[in-house]
Amino acid sequence: AGNSKSSKFTAVPPGPPMYLDLVYIPNHSNRKNVDVEFFKRVRSSYYVVSGNDAAAEEPSRAVLDSLLEGKAQWDSNMQVTLIPTHDSEVMREWYQETHEKQQDLNIMVLASSSTVVMQDESFPACKIEL
Question: A single GO BP annotation from the record (predicted)?
Answer without folding.
Answer: regulation of microtubule depolymerization
